[in-house]
Amino acid sequence: MNNQKQQKPTLTGQRFKTRKRDEKERFDPTQFQESIVQGLNQTGTDLEAVAKFLDASGAKLDYRRYAETLFDILVAGGMLAPGGTLSDDMTRTEYCLFTAQEDLETMQAYAQVFNKLIRRYKYLEKGFEEEIKKLLLFLKGFTESERNKLAMLTGILLANGSISASILSSLFNENLVKEGVSAAFAVKLFKSWINEKDINSVAGSLRKVGMDNRLMELFPANKRSCEHFSKYFTDAGLKELSDFARNQQSIGARKELQKELQEQMSRGDPLKEIIAFTREEMKKANLSEQAMISIIWTSVMSSVEWNKKEELVTEQAIKHLKQYSPLLKAFTSQGLSELSLLLKIQEYCYDNIHFMKAFQKIVVLLYKADVLSEEAILKWYTEAHLAKGKSVFLEQMKKFVEWLKNAEEESESEEEEAD
Biased composition, Polar residues: where in the chain (predicted)? Predict the structure, then answer.
């Protein structure tokens, strides 16, 4: 008997294991498009039914892969070719944003469809924002009515936070700007945005993404002025947007002026030159004396490196302010300007803790230098001071205010005797 085990026959050749995730599917939106179009044709103009259909279809169709196709169909009825025209060889539907009624109520209902879809399928959020950016670049390929609907929808979506205001950068496209398409679109967009919220909410969203200072770019370079912007949007019924842009420009001009003054002081430019420059800039920017004295104070206090020791900083501040008191005096010819300066000093001493004990000494110095009058100081003391550090500063000023009041009373009695 043969004790050797018989060898089992083996299969020759190699076996390859193919993982599903390694199989790359070909990008083919045809089937996807047909499914969406068919569903939209069945739901028709019933947007509640559209929302339900989209919600259910996400479980069966690849929204992640064909997000752009999905949004193109919902907006334009079919896939869009570069430039904004509908692709000829694809199925399309008549039930989409562009064929809907051109009114705010319908656009609000469409915004709800998009909101529900993105809330349900969170991964579509980024793709949707990219879609809006793309659609804005395609504006020239759309009809006026289609642009109006898209503008209203975009304004509503911006108001409810579905998209970021950074999408507005598409409107700065040179070709759109040159032909006036951007500005006209912006009118409709901002009207629907402000209608949903208010100008403060709009301003906050614009600031968040650095768009607050770029609105002038809606116009060609030769029309990029505050005057043109203001007239265009005021005439279009958006005065609050005009005022916001004017205010932004004014803030920008003030920051630039403050920076320039600070540099002139740091360089040690002659005071006469600084005063002349400041007067000219004040006139150019149409600034009030109250606004100007606030800018000057900030520039004066920012042009030097302050000592960190409380006992030394007061002495340093007095010496520094004595040098610049003629500049401060030149822009405090009105009582309101003096009061504005006093409030800026109070605010500065409160915000910079090393200056807390210096407040009274600074005020006395500026009184002696004829920058601040006794009327302004007394008004500040009795009624016009800020809440910041109030008890500390009023206590510091108590003796000096008593002295001022006594001096005033003596002066009045001397006048009476003379009469």
Answer: 1-15
